[in-house]
Amino acid sequence: MLRSVNLRLLAPLGLLALSAPMVPVAALQIGGRPAEEWAVVLESGRRLGSLEIDAVVSRMGIRPGDVVADVGAGTGVFSVSLARATGPTGTVLAVEVDAGFLPMIAQKGVDGGVENIQTVLGEFTDPKLPRRDLDVAFFHDVIHHIEGRQAYLQATAQYLGPGSRVVVVDYHGDRPGAPHSGQPEMLITLRQVREWMSVAGFDLTQEFDLFDDKFFVVFTKRD
Ligand SMILES: C[S@@+](CC[C@H](N)C(=O)[O-])C[C@H]1O[C@@H](n2cnc3c(N)ncnc32)[C@H](O)[C@@H]1O
Q1: Closest Cα to atom 1, ligand 1: which residue?
Q2: For position 86, which CATH number holds?
Q3: Confidence (pTM)
Q4: Residue 46 belongs to what H/E stretch?
Q5: Which of 77, 97, 105 most suits a substitution to test ligand 1, by most atoms within 8 Å of the C-beta?
Q6: For a tag site, which of 11, 14, 95, 220 has the least CB within 10 Å?
Q7: Strand arrangement, sheet containing 91-96
Q8: Any idea of the CA torsion for 192, 220, 123, 34, to the nearest 10 degrees?
Q9: Is the Cβ–Cβ distance between 201 and 157 less than 8 Å?
Q10: How far is 84 from 139, CA to CA, in rounded Å?
Q11: Ligand 1: residues within 6 Å at CB?
Protein backbone atom coordinates (compact mmCIF):
# COMPACT_ATOMS: atom_id res chain seq x y z
CA MET A 1 0.00 0.00 0.00
CA LEU A 2 1.34 3.42 -0.89
CA ARG A 3 1.48 6.18 1.66
CA SER A 4 1.64 9.87 0.85
CA VAL A 5 3.91 12.72 1.83
CA ASN A 6 3.85 16.42 1.18
CA LEU A 7 6.68 17.05 -1.26
CA ARG A 8 6.81 20.73 -0.39
CA LEU A 9 8.27 19.75 2.98
CA LEU A 10 11.41 18.46 1.28
CA ALA A 11 11.97 21.06 -1.40
CA PRO A 12 13.98 23.51 0.76
CA LEU A 13 16.82 21.02 1.00
CA GLY A 14 17.13 21.29 -2.75
CA LEU A 15 16.22 17.64 -2.93
CA LEU A 16 13.12 17.93 -5.02
CA ALA A 17 11.69 20.03 -7.75
CA LEU A 18 8.42 21.42 -6.50
CA SER A 19 5.44 19.62 -7.96
CA ALA A 20 2.02 18.39 -6.97
CA PRO A 21 1.67 18.39 -3.18
CA MET A 22 0.93 14.72 -2.67
CA VAL A 23 2.69 11.76 -4.28
CA PRO A 24 3.16 8.15 -3.28
CA VAL A 25 5.94 7.79 -0.73
CA ALA A 26 7.28 4.75 -2.57
CA ALA A 27 7.92 6.94 -5.60
CA LEU A 28 9.61 9.55 -3.43
CA GLN A 29 11.74 7.31 -1.27
CA ILE A 30 12.63 4.51 -3.63
CA GLY A 31 11.97 5.51 -7.19
CA GLY A 32 12.72 9.17 -6.57
CA ARG A 33 16.04 10.86 -6.05
CA PRO A 34 18.55 8.40 -4.58
CA ALA A 35 19.63 8.77 -0.97
CA GLU A 36 23.21 9.18 -2.29
CA GLU A 37 22.17 12.53 -3.75
CA TRP A 38 20.42 13.58 -0.56
CA ALA A 39 23.58 12.67 1.33
CA VAL A 40 25.57 15.30 -0.57
CA VAL A 41 23.25 17.99 0.78
CA LEU A 42 23.15 16.64 4.33
CA GLU A 43 26.92 16.30 4.50
CA SER A 44 28.02 19.51 2.82
CA GLY A 45 30.96 21.04 4.64
CA ARG A 46 28.98 24.18 5.35
CA ARG A 47 26.15 22.24 6.98
CA LEU A 48 28.40 19.94 9.00
CA GLY A 49 30.42 22.90 10.20
CA SER A 50 27.29 24.50 11.63
CA LEU A 51 25.84 21.52 13.51
CA GLU A 52 28.02 21.62 16.65
CA ILE A 53 27.65 17.84 16.89
CA ASP A 54 29.88 17.26 19.91
CA ALA A 55 28.55 20.32 21.74
CA VAL A 56 24.96 19.12 21.23
CA VAL A 57 25.62 15.52 22.26
CA SER A 58 27.64 16.52 25.32
CA ARG A 59 24.69 18.62 26.57
CA MET A 60 22.15 15.81 26.13
CA GLY A 61 23.06 14.11 29.41
CA ILE A 62 23.36 10.68 27.85
CA ARG A 63 24.58 8.07 30.33
CA PRO A 64 26.53 4.87 29.64
CA GLY A 65 24.06 2.10 28.84
CA ASP A 66 21.30 4.41 27.59
CA VAL A 67 19.04 3.48 24.70
CA VAL A 68 18.85 6.47 22.35
CA ALA A 69 16.79 6.85 19.17
CA ASP A 70 18.24 9.14 16.49
CA VAL A 71 14.93 9.77 14.75
CA GLY A 72 15.22 10.84 11.11
CA ALA A 73 18.93 10.11 11.29
CA GLY A 74 19.58 10.87 7.60
CA THR A 75 23.12 9.75 6.83
CA GLY A 76 23.83 9.39 10.55
CA VAL A 77 25.90 12.48 11.16
CA PHE A 78 24.95 12.39 14.86
CA SER A 79 24.70 8.61 15.27
CA VAL A 80 28.37 7.85 15.98
CA SER A 81 28.71 10.63 18.51
CA LEU A 82 25.53 9.40 20.23
CA ALA A 83 26.86 5.81 20.16
CA ARG A 84 30.08 6.92 21.84
CA ALA A 85 28.06 8.73 24.52
CA THR A 86 26.02 5.60 25.38
CA GLY A 87 29.18 3.47 25.31
CA PRO A 88 29.27 -0.19 24.33
CA THR A 89 26.61 -1.14 26.88
CA GLY A 90 24.16 1.28 25.30
CA THR A 91 22.36 1.31 21.97
CA VAL A 92 21.57 3.89 19.31
CA LEU A 93 18.52 3.13 17.20
CA ALA A 94 18.99 5.17 14.02
CA VAL A 95 15.56 5.54 12.45
CA GLU A 96 14.91 6.51 8.84
CA VAL A 97 11.95 6.37 6.51
CA ASP A 98 14.26 6.23 3.50
CA ALA A 99 15.86 2.78 3.34
CA GLY A 100 18.68 4.16 1.20
CA PHE A 101 20.14 5.89 4.24
CA LEU A 102 20.41 2.77 6.38
CA PRO A 103 23.63 1.36 4.83
CA MET A 104 25.22 4.81 5.05
CA ILE A 105 24.45 4.96 8.77
CA ALA A 106 25.82 1.44 9.26
CA GLN A 107 29.00 2.41 7.43
CA LYS A 108 29.38 5.45 9.67
CA GLY A 109 29.37 3.06 12.63
CA VAL A 110 32.08 0.92 11.04
CA ASP A 111 34.19 3.95 10.16
CA GLY A 112 33.69 5.38 13.63
CA GLY A 113 34.65 2.14 15.36
CA VAL A 114 31.34 1.70 17.20
CA GLU A 115 29.23 -1.47 17.19
CA ASN A 116 26.15 -0.25 19.02
CA ILE A 117 24.21 1.46 16.23
CA GLN A 118 21.14 -0.42 15.05
CA THR A 119 19.38 0.91 11.97
CA VAL A 120 15.58 0.93 11.90
CA LEU A 121 13.28 1.45 8.91
CA GLY A 122 10.46 3.54 10.32
CA GLU A 123 7.15 4.60 8.88
CA PHE A 124 5.98 8.16 8.24
CA THR A 125 3.51 7.97 11.09
CA ASP A 126 5.44 5.77 13.53
CA PRO A 127 9.17 5.20 14.10
CA LYS A 128 8.48 1.46 14.50
CA LEU A 129 11.19 1.03 17.10
CA PRO A 130 12.04 -2.53 18.15
CA ARG A 131 11.85 -1.80 21.91
CA ARG A 132 9.85 0.31 24.35
CA ASP A 133 12.48 1.20 26.93
CA LEU A 134 14.07 4.22 25.29
CA ASP A 135 15.88 6.69 27.52
CA VAL A 136 16.21 9.45 24.92
CA ALA A 137 14.67 10.25 21.53
CA PHE A 138 16.62 12.81 19.51
CA PHE A 139 15.14 14.85 16.66
CA HIS A 140 17.72 16.96 14.86
CA ASP A 141 16.41 19.03 11.94
CA VAL A 142 13.55 16.55 11.54
CA ILE A 143 10.26 17.63 13.12
CA HIS A 144 9.55 20.32 10.52
CA HIS A 145 9.86 17.60 7.85
CA ILE A 146 7.19 15.43 9.45
CA GLU A 147 3.73 16.06 8.12
CA GLY A 148 1.63 14.78 11.05
CA ARG A 149 3.78 16.16 13.85
CA GLN A 150 1.41 15.74 16.77
CA ALA A 151 0.52 12.17 15.84
CA TYR A 152 4.15 11.23 15.18
CA LEU A 153 5.33 12.58 18.54
CA GLN A 154 2.54 10.70 20.30
CA ALA A 155 3.52 7.53 18.44
CA THR A 156 7.14 8.06 19.51
CA ALA A 157 6.10 8.54 23.13
CA GLN A 158 4.92 4.92 23.26
CA TYR A 159 8.53 3.77 22.99
CA LEU A 160 9.83 5.94 25.82
CA GLY A 161 10.10 4.70 29.38
CA PRO A 162 9.53 6.51 32.71
CA GLY A 163 11.78 9.54 33.23
CA SER A 164 12.82 9.46 29.59
CA ARG A 165 13.60 12.53 27.54
CA VAL A 166 12.99 13.88 24.06
CA VAL A 167 15.65 16.24 22.73
CA VAL A 168 14.75 18.54 19.85
CA VAL A 169 16.95 20.80 17.74
CA ASP A 170 15.04 22.63 15.04
CA TYR A 171 14.68 26.00 13.35
CA HIS A 172 12.80 28.91 14.86
CA GLY A 173 10.14 29.32 12.19
CA ASP A 174 8.99 32.61 13.71
CA ARG A 175 12.29 34.44 13.29
CA PRO A 176 12.93 36.80 10.35
CA GLY A 177 15.02 35.05 7.72
CA ALA A 178 14.14 31.56 8.95
CA PRO A 179 15.05 28.84 6.47
CA HIS A 180 12.07 27.72 4.39
CA SER A 181 10.37 31.07 5.05
CA GLY A 182 8.58 30.93 1.69
CA GLN A 183 6.87 27.73 2.76
CA PRO A 184 4.65 28.21 5.81
CA GLU A 185 4.08 24.47 6.15
CA MET A 186 7.81 24.05 6.83
CA LEU A 187 7.85 26.55 9.67
CA ILE A 188 7.47 25.39 13.25
CA THR A 189 7.95 27.27 16.49
CA LEU A 190 9.18 26.27 19.91
CA ARG A 191 5.73 27.09 21.25
CA GLN A 192 4.14 24.58 18.88
CA VAL A 193 6.66 21.90 19.78
CA ARG A 194 5.95 22.52 23.48
CA GLU A 195 2.24 22.06 22.86
CA TRP A 196 2.70 18.89 20.82
CA MET A 197 5.05 17.47 23.42
CA SER A 198 2.69 18.38 26.25
CA VAL A 199 -0.13 16.45 24.57
CA ALA A 200 2.32 13.55 24.15
CA GLY A 201 2.99 13.63 27.93
CA PHE A 202 6.26 15.57 28.11
CA ASP A 203 7.22 18.88 29.78
CA LEU A 204 9.99 21.24 28.75
CA THR A 205 12.79 20.85 31.31
CA GLN A 206 15.91 22.30 29.67
CA GLU A 207 16.74 24.85 27.03
CA PHE A 208 20.24 25.45 25.68
CA ASP A 209 21.35 28.69 24.07
CA LEU A 210 23.73 27.20 21.51
CA PHE A 211 22.34 28.42 18.19
CA ASP A 212 21.02 31.74 16.90
CA ASP A 213 18.56 30.25 14.45
CA LYS A 214 17.58 26.98 16.14
CA PHE A 215 16.09 25.96 19.45
CA PHE A 216 17.74 23.15 21.40
CA VAL A 217 15.41 21.86 24.08
CA VAL A 218 14.85 18.85 26.31
CA PHE A 219 11.45 17.46 27.30
CA THR A 220 10.97 14.99 30.16
CA LYS A 221 8.18 12.43 30.39
CA ARG A 222 5.61 13.17 33.08
CA ASP A 223 5.17 10.50 35.76
C1 LIG B 1 17.05 17.40 7.15
S2 LIG B 1 17.18 15.66 7.34
C3 LIG B 1 18.06 15.56 8.88
C4 LIG B 1 18.86 14.29 9.01
C5 LIG B 1 19.71 14.23 10.27
N6 LIG B 1 18.90 14.25 11.47
C7 LIG B 1 20.68 15.36 10.27
O8 LIG B 1 20.47 16.35 10.98
O9 LIG B 1 21.65 15.28 9.51
C10 LIG B 1 15.55 15.14 7.77
C11 LIG B 1 15.43 13.63 7.78
O12 LIG B 1 14.18 13.26 8.34
C13 LIG B 1 13.73 12.11 7.69
N14 LIG B 1 12.30 12.00 7.92
C15 LIG B 1 11.32 12.73 7.39
N16 LIG B 1 10.12 12.33 7.86
C17 LIG B 1 10.38 11.33 8.75
C18 LIG B 1 9.57 10.52 9.57
N19 LIG B 1 8.24 10.64 9.59
N20 LIG B 1 10.17 9.58 10.34
C21 LIG B 1 11.52 9.45 10.33
N22 LIG B 1 12.34 10.18 9.55
C23 LIG B 1 11.77 11.12 8.78
C24 LIG B 1 14.11 12.33 6.23
O25 LIG B 1 14.17 11.10 5.51
C26 LIG B 1 15.47 13.00 6.40
O27 LIG B 1 16.53 12.07 6.35
Answers
A1: 141
A2: 3.40.50.150
A3: 0.89
A4: helix 45-50
A5: 97
A6: 14
A7: 117-121, 91-96, 67-71, 134-140, 160-171, 214-221, 202-208
A8: 80
A9: yes
A10: 18
A11: 13, 42, 71-74, 77, 95-98, 122, 124, 140-142, 145-146, 152
Angle, alpha carbons 44-48-52 (nearest 5°): 170
Q: Would residue 83 count as lying in a domain?
A: yes
Number of domains in the chain: 1
